[in-house]
Structure formats: structure tokens, C-alpha cells
Design a protein that fits this description.
51% helix, 10 helices, globular, alpha/beta
């Protein structure tokens, strides 16, 4: 893929991460999944090389970069067949929110560990009855003297079993009057009343999904991140990086699948020429390549806007990037499997499991339909239907 729009530093980072990914690859990831384990070796090596915390402040052990750099890391690991989903959550969402809005004590406690990979943080926003409607979040936080008391449920929370804490999105109780007032709280894994149960997923991934129950979870006053009255701003400061990183995840997966299909199409011979010589094979693969390239351009734009501090413009671009990458990823995986025919569904080639995995980029962290709602309202100025 062309990298002429990137700086020399970004090109060097891309090449270095690609080399790391190649050392692990899809076989490593499938073996981790098969064993029910976590990609700890890759996580640790990526951390040691400074890739996990490349977006976090240098004073706390990070690389001093931004989403432009972190998205390169995830994309290239994904293109090698070994993406790290928790990068979307731990350094991108949680690390960003704490770096931007956390107290000095919270930054000292969490950022060095998030940067060097020794600490992992999960993120809980989705609820069973709210789905994509974050305005319906019912997890509440009430003050009780010097403490906060959290009550509620969350669902589809990644990696809670390996996370040292979960950043939970709740609402202060006066939000029930109709005014949206989300707040973010750091909930340690072993906090009394903080219960988790694993969701049985068809999705084959090393990162497990959980449902959480917060039953009168008592937290100290300093568990609140940032300003109680600036919760919405803080929340979206984490959601924009999430969308950028989900785009990187989808683009990487699409590139991996496309690469396998192209390799196969160059060598598979049924008639006189390799099947890649036939336009019915070649043209759909070329289309997939074009769509992945276009998605990456929007992802780069979104990352640049976010890193430049333009949260509003970054919100629009990040949503568009996530949408484009999700569509491109699903199409690339589908075409890759189709190119291989029956072989596309064998374990030997490892593409069949990506059919389910590629859907994630369309569904999470927000559905493509909600992005279309956002663009129709925010970009086009059309009236809301809800």
C-alpha cells in the first residue's frame, strides 16, 4: 500500500510494526485462540518496543505521539494476521481519556502501566437495554459521603478478565431529570459488587466478551475521571479514538484477507493461466484494494484532526472512517473467501473465521446505521427521525 502521504517517521514505524507482526502472524493468533489463551507474548513485545503507548505522553512513559501513530500499529499488526483488539480499548480509549482529563494522581497511577503494557484497562459503555443509544444508559452513580456508589449492568465488554480495571460510563442520578450527564469511573477488577460473566460468542478471538453487573459498587471519590460536569466532552474524547482504531482494525483485517487471496490467485491454476488472470477474479480484488485504500485515507484524516485537537471535525471524520473501513473489510474478506472457493472455508487457509470477525467492524462500537444517522444529521443537516 502506498505511504507517500506519511512522514518518514510514520513509514519507519509502519515497516517496523509490519516486521513484528510477520514474526507472529495468523498462525500464532489462531493457536492462541485454539488454546483459549491471550496473545501475551505479542502484547509484551509490542509494549517493550514502545508501540502500545505510542500515543501517550512522554512524561508518563509513552511515545508522545497520537492516534496517527497508534492506528498505524494496529493496522500493521492486523495486516500481518495478528491484531490486538485491546489496543482499541486500553491505550486508545482509556489512556486518552485519562491523559486528557485525569487528575495528576490518576495519570501517575495508570499511564505508565498502560504505556508499557503492564496494566490493561477495559471500557464499559454498552448496556443490555440501551444498545447504541448512549442517552439511555441506566448505570447510575450516587454520592454517599466521600464515596461513589455505582449500580447497573454492562454488556459486550472486551477483556475484563485480563484488565486491571474497567472504565465505566455511568450517569449521575440527577440525569434522570432528563439532562444527560454521563460520568466516567475507574472500577478495579476486584471491587466488591463488581461481577462479570463471559458471553458465549461465535466470534473466534482471543479477547473474551463479558456482561458486567455493578451491585452497589463503592468507589472512592478519586475514582471519578475528570470533571463531573464535563462528562459528555470526556466521553466523546474517548469515542473518537475508538472509531479511528476500529477503522485500523478493519483495514488491517481486510488487507490480510486480500493479501492471502492475491497470493492464491497468482498461483492457483485451473485452466491455462492462473485464476488471477481472469477479470471475474481480478476486478473484485482490485475493487477491494481501492476501497481499503480509501478507508485508510479517511482514517488518516480523522487521526490528524483528532491529534490537532479539532474534536468536532474529528468526530465526523472518525465516524466516516469507521463506516468505510467496516464496509471495505467485510467486502475484502468475502471476496477473499470466494476467490479461494472451498479452500476459503478450510482451517488450512484460515479465512473462514474472518467472515464472522469482519462483521465486528460493521457492528461495533457503533452500527453503520447509527453512523449514517450521525452523518445525515450533523453533516447534511437533515432532521432526526428519533
Amino acid at each position: 500500500m502506498s505511504t507517500v502521504l506519511e512522514t518518514e517517521e510514520h513509514q519507519a514505524l509502519r515497516a517496523a510494526v509490519a516486521a513484528l507482526g510477520k514474526r507472529y502472524g495468523r498462525d500464532y493468533m489462531t493457536s492462541v485462540i485454539r488454546d483459549g489463551a491471550h496473545p501475551g507474548e505479542l502484547w509484551a513485545e509490542a509494549a517493550k518496543l514502545g508501540y502500545l503507548g505510542v500515543n501517550l505522553p512522554e512524561e508518563y512513559g509513552g511515545g508522545g505521539g497520537g492516534m496517527a501513530e497508534l492506528s498505524i500499529v494496529l493496522e500493521e499488526l492486523g495486516a500481518a494476521g495478528s491484531p490486538l483488539l485491546m489496543m482499541v480499548v486500553s491505550p486508545a480509549i482509556c489512556g486518552t481519556v485519562i491523559a486528557r482529563f485525569g487528575t495528576d494522581a490518576q495519570k501517575r497511577q495508570w499511564l505508565p502501566g498502560l504505556a508499557d503494557g503492564s496494566l490493561i484497562m477495559a471500557f464499559g459503555i454498552t448496556e443490555p437495554d440501551a444498545g447504541s443509544n448512549s442517552h439511555r444508559i441506566s448505570t447510575t452513580a450516587r454520592r454517599d459521603g466521600e464515596e461513589w456508589v455505582l449500580t447497573g449492568r454492562k454488556v459486550f465488554v472486551s477483556g475484563v478478565d485480563i484488565a486491571d480495571a474497567t472504565l465505566i460510563v455511568g450517569r449521575t442520578e440527577d440525569a434522570r431529570s432528563g439532562k444527560l450527564k454521563p460520568c466516567l469511573f475507574i472500577v478495579p477488577r476486584e471491587a466488591p459488587g463488581f461481577q462479570r460473566s463471559q458471553i458465549d460468542m461465535e466470534l473466534q478471538a482471543p479477547e473474551k466478551q463479558f456482561e458486567l453487573v455493578l451491585d452497589e459498587v463503592r468507589l472512592p471519590a478519586d475514582a471519578l475521571v475528570g470533571d463531573q460536569d464535563a462528562g459528555l466532552l470526556q466521553l466523546f474524547a474517548g469515542l473518537n479514538p475508538e472509531r479511528v482504531m476500529t477503522a485500523a482494525f478493519g483495514i488491517g483485517m481486510g488487507r490480510y484477507a486480500l493479501g492471502r487471496a492475491v497470493e492464491y490467485a497468482k498461483t492457483r491454476q485451473v485452466w491455462k493461466e492462473p485464476i488471477g488472470a481472469h477479470q471475474a477474479i481480478a476486478h473484485p480484488l482490485a475493487q477491494a484494494h481501492i476501497e481499503l485504500e480509501l478507508a485508510r485515507l479517511m482514517m488518516q484524516k480523522a487521526a490528524r484532526l483528532y491529534d490537532d485537537g479539532d474534536d468536532i471535525a474529528a468526530g465526523e471524520a472518525a465516524n466516516m472512517a469507521k463506516y468505510a473501513a467496516g464496509e471495505a473489510c467485510v467486502k475484502a474478506v468475502d471476496q477473499a473467501v470466494h476467490t479461494l472457493g472451498g479452500n476459503g472455508l478450510t482451517r488450512e487457509y484460515g479465512l473462514g473465521s474472518l467472515i464472522t470477525a469482519s462483521r465486528v467492524a460493521r457492528i461495533a462500537p457503533v452500527s453503520r446505521e447509527m453512523i449514517l444517522n450521525y452523518v445525515s444529521h450533523q453533516s447534511l443537516g437533515l432532521p432526526k427521525s428519533y
